[in-house]
Amino acid sequence: MEKGISQAVIRRMPRYYRYLGELLENGVERISSNDLSNLMKVTASQIRQDLNNFGGFGQQGYGYNVKFLYDEIGKIMGLNCRHDIIVIGAGNLGLALTNYAKFEKLGFVITALFDINPKLKGTKVRGIPVYMMDELEKYCKNHSIDIAALTIPKDSATEVAQKLVDLGIRAIWNFAHVDLDVGEDVIVENVHLSDSLMQLSYNIVKNTANE
Amino acid sequence: MEKGISQAVIRRMPRYYRYLGELLENGVERISSNDLSNLMKVTASQIRQDLNNFGGFGQQGYGYNVKFLYDEIGKIMGLNCRHDIIVIGAGNLGLALTNYAKFEKLGFVITALFDINPKLKGTKVRGIPVYMMDELEKYCKNHSIDIAALTIPKDSATEVAQKLVDLGIRAIWNFAHVDLDVGEDVIVENVHLSDSLMQLSYNIVKNTANE
After folding, report:
1. Nearest by CB to A200, which of B173, B196, B205?
2. Max Cα–Cα distance, chain A, nearest Å
3. Given an 8 Å threshold on Cβ–Cβ distance, is A204 in contact with B170?
4. Contact A11 B199 (CB under 8 A)
5. Cα–Cα–Cα angle for A195, B111, A209, nearest 5°?
């Protein structure tokens, strides 16, 4: 297993994966690091550095084998296994995630949604059942779940996250605007939309000041 | 205007802002960098370094004035002005953004949605009108728009982004899974959900391998 690779490098890998996937779809079999650099608007040196973290996949005078590199990055990112996901919260955001068919192609399969709204009991989203929160424990006992996506308000997120961890879930995709304190053996990946908006507004203010 | 502050530091600012906001709500007037460090699980040295980028707001033996620091970070992040947003795409994700009232408290006000589905013409979401895409040009001429949120599929995103730029929009909050090539004077902030999922799955694989 690779060790000591910075999260910054890991954060760049999905973008490589996306570009390589598009090259593959377009029938490109190999690409030089310069061409990849132009395409991705990243320096060739950055590309070589990034990929060297994983042993490097380029060959002098040949460039990168697109399919091989795509598959290797996929393996590194765990995309060669299926990951079952449950979505906690069947509001707009939960529905948006569930309706996004692209995730399945990457091996991320949403198997159930959970909500507290009794009107949603027994309904389905794209064929995927919506259960009530009081059915969560039973569901977790009978199914293997790799990831829980948390799309519920901040106020209940902490409590629900703890419940998920108690039920054995080891990875949380957290959309609630709160830092979850669930122990070091649980992986939390945050998507904080307000933070992203603030980042945007910072850059707007900076741009305006520099004009 | 501050210059040369790394985007990594900027990316950490919203989290400071969130914690300081919560302290304020709880009536905390000042906090030492050690207490803030414990609360945020960041080293006190990191906190001092981060805040020094902005001139530093701490005083020896006093700590940080919560309200002052909160307001200053707010100003730095452009949260002291109102930002008008239009949402392109009134699907689940567009609705989720529109229904998230928290954004307004931060000064981000969604003023209109746009879609191509004729069934949505004339409807409203939380009082906010949904227009058809062919009304976009007229709307942009008559309203000041700071940010366009792009929640449409990848295939149409590039074209629509160019249209928005042609209509004078200078900041795009992009949820489409594609890199927008819209020129250097346009700010693009990407939220790539698949990338976030891949990051999560990488860490799951790594954790499993280390067990």
Report:
1. B173
2. 63
3. yes
4. yes
5. 55
